[in-house]
Write the structure tokens for this entry.
Amino acid sequence: MHIGRVAGATRNLGAPRDWDPAKDGICGGLPIRDEPHSPGVNRMVSAWLPTPEEIALIVAGAPIYLGVLGIEHPPVSLFVGNPPTDTPVSQEA
């Protein structure tokens, strides 16, 4: 999956404080949109775009996995957004 640009992004998450690229690998930025979930609870939403190969696997019934690092599992959710409505701008030289 590729990281997408979530509509209305409010910030960009970087590597966690204790992240060691030599040991843990590269941790790029993740654009997120902060939004209210319930009174006093924030929800961070990110966008992920499956590759054509992953789409074919999903259509064939393959599961979508969520990986969470650590030993405690925070509350998470997966959901499908709407297709993009904007038309790409042509890149003329």
User: Anything to note?
Assistant: The first helix runs from residue 21 to 24.
